[in-house]
Amino acid sequence: MTRSQHGLAAAPWVFLGVFFVAPVVMTLAIFSDITVLQETITNSFFIKIAWFSLWQAMLSVVVTLLIGLPATWALSRVSFPGSQILRGILSAPFVMPAVVVASGVLAVLPADNNTGLIPILWAHAMFNISVVLRIVGPRWELLDQRLEHAAATLGAHPMHTFRHIVWPHIKNSTMNAALLIFIYCFTSFGVIVIVGGFQRRTMEAEIFTQAIRLGDTSTATALAVTQIAMIGLVFTIVRTRSGREISAQHIQRRPPLSSTTHNRWIVWGAIASAVAVVGLPLVATLWRSIYSRSTQSFTVSGWESLLDARLPGMAYSATEVLTNSAMFALLAALVCVPLSLAAVVSNNRFLFFVSSLPVVVSAATLGIGLIITFDVDPIAWRSQWWLLPVVHAVIAFPLTTRTLHPAYTAIPTSLRHSATVLGASPLRTFFHIEIPIMKSALWRATGLSAAVSLGEFGATSFLSRSGTTTMPIAISQLMGTVGQAPQQAAFALSATFIIVTIGVMSRA
Amino acid sequence: MLKVSHLSVSYGKEKILTNVSLTVPTGSTTAIVGPSGSGKSTLLHAICGLITIESGQIFIDDIDVTSTPAHRRNIGLVSQSGDLFPTMTVRENIEFGLRMDKADADTRAMRSDFLLDLISLAEYGKRMPDTLSGGQARRVAVARALARKPPLLVMDEPLTGLDAETHDELATDIKRLIAETATTAIIVTHDLDEAKFFADVVIDIRSLTEPE
Amino acid sequence: MKKIHLIAVLLGSAIVAASCTSSSSENTTTEVTLVAYDSFTPEEGIFDAFTEQTGATVKVVTAGDTGTMVSKAILTAGNPEGDVMWGIDNTFLSRAQDANVLSSYEPVDEGDICVNYDKEWFNERAIAVPTSFEDLVRPEYAGLLTVQDPVNSSPGLGFLLGTIAHFGDNNWEQYWRALKDNKVNMAPDWSSAYYEAFSASSDTGKYPLVVSYGSSPPAEVVFAETPITEPTTGVIEATCFRQTEYVGVLRGTKNTELAEKLVEYLLGKKFQESMPLTLFVFPINKDAILPEVFEKFAVRPANPLLMEPKKIEDNRESWLDTWRGLFS
Question: Is the ipTM of this complex over 0.85?
Fold first, then answer.
């Protein structure tokens, strides 16, 4: 198996090497300048931005955990009718483009007071509650309820039970979730641009300002390098502090709500607060799609325009945009999932490390790299339509490998051995035994990569398009056009996205 | 000591216990037997306050504890298997209840030393639960349940899943522990021989349901 | 197992399809590529006449907003993504010239960045509409104006340049201090200024004055949900800063001849007349006839504020630094 495992690593190596490492190295090689770096990290304006990026990300993590953990507890420890739909609603924003989430937050807050710190935290919490749900939830489900029972009969108040029994059990996965949320919020771009107001800017937003508005690629690169270093530092600190994971307890049936001693009001309170945070902006978007703020009356013109041959003021129809987005999401998943699987099976630590880098590298660095690398034959691919889903696959790669890895390592070796003894070749063992066991993880990975593709905004904005406009781009273009019709169309398009996502996520 | 009157419990629409009444005299050991799925564990959980009951009342020493939360009932519980806190050492497991009662370190140490001796695991205080054998882990679980000197000890199939030798050894040990600590006990089991070995009174759970 | 086969087949076919499209598009010379900003939405079928004349089809490639498009063009100067570039404006032109992006260029359209006002708001209160930059800092107009961050927004930059052109290099800073004291609202971008803060677009918007375009009033009429005959907004002419967009041949194109023909076509009467209602800009070609709604409601000031592209490029960074100093 070892030799074929090494062979398997080749495909993801080539993929990441060509579409990630090469462009990033190109950018760094051409635009890194030590004096610019020195000037940048000593410039008080940039220091202020770095400091803001850091503390707003930390605050976002705290807010998300405060809202997300109780909801995760309710959804993973108690079963009740409708929990699937609620799970769907809470998970949905994760796959939504920043422009949909952020404009939902804009729509729910009063118009002249909807930028700044509160909307940023709100949008970040909305996005990331599902990260808590997805990372901490499965772990929490594994906690043997008898441990909690034992603690209770030994006189532990529920608070003490949480501190002494539950927290040690979920600590590591909570830290993992917190780290991921931190990285997302630290490098936040779309949300910041839309609801940040002009003074609340992250490094990622400033990287785009420097590279695009001011044309200063060297400063942008210096900021990108600083950003990587800061994330690396936080990553190292958190990782060295979290210990080994205690072995999983066996899975059990969740007790129905009516039969536990949990106060039902606490359960409902935990869920209601999370649903309010996530749901209000979504409902506000649906509301805005049928209510015009300027004429202060109801209208279905936005929905009608989705059926027109062209969206108001645009060169494309809603159907085209939806088809493009769906197709790119599918292609991104088709590229990403098999390659991630190969990377996971190859069990190559260095490959694993490289595959996690797209999370920390600024989208602008990658975007610039793509257009300066793929500009000569035979690799003049920069305006090829397929580069878009390929880049989406690169950006989704860290998420999918991390989804598949635990599922793969959880397969007991004895199973492989028995298959081998029964005469199965390693390949047959892989396809007949391992793939079916990993089925649910493979679906999750597929969903994640499709989600990244649907929402990606940063690196793709560097790629030129010809008739391949995607949802987030269409929505922001509609919002940036004068006139009520494009506005209504933008909200109707967002609303469509929301309805479809919730439908899909409550089944996933 | 313990009086359960007209207790009913259901999971969703499924009725688990209907109109069950039971009295356990102080100082006795009562065994409740019945096939799996007959609601034996549910009865114990209801007595401990771990689940919400639909109707009925529970009295301990003539005090109505029906609405007292589990952590204030002071009932020792020993579950089927594997409910030692995996993040704590054996000693920390045993002392957990005393910590919740805010007992000082000396008191806790004295009590756990005594109990570790009693279960013949004096050298095992610093071990983690996952390094113990099945029989050892059960003994620790019993010691942990007895640490706060609960007036009532309930045990849910404490001997299932052990090999014959360990089973017999542990049965003798548990019987001795109950006697030495003079605790009122309820033991739930599907094994009639086991029930007879432990208990003064053996009750079939199906006989507890009173006709309406 | 079957699923994996399917994936492999789909992947393979996707790659084949991709390579097919790439080779077919590169071997043909009967296609000319026009690189434009995202909001370039020409009339449907407008290039049919060009294809009839030359036999070549026009492929429109959108490359992000103007800033992104120019930045990318600079990074790929000499080895461009297309043949012709549409829409570099006077705030970016000089930067593109410095990087030698275009081998030739000409102005193709123009428009103005002006303060717009909510007609109803001023009518209802019987307050006179301000008519100049100076008015905007008077106490009766305190807290009424919303503008955009000039660092990240093109209209925001246009407004800043307008004030510099009007007050001069030495006095604009003082004017902005006065604006700040008069409680000017700073929005991050055009959409949030126009759709969230501007009272004419939103029932909860509080600002009856907003920086937008001279062509915004006719756009309000064209893109109204329910037909209206009169825009609800007006333009303060004295605040208008001229924005000129250019079209040029990208240096390094292998299609120079066709590219030049396309530029000529874009400057021709037919295309120029289609621009007002699709791109909301004024034609540069004097022969082009304006549509009625434009003639009626779009403002084209006789003496707009102007600034040389070179002066903009030379000073932009220091002006923005100064501005950032004032506002952060």
Answer: yes
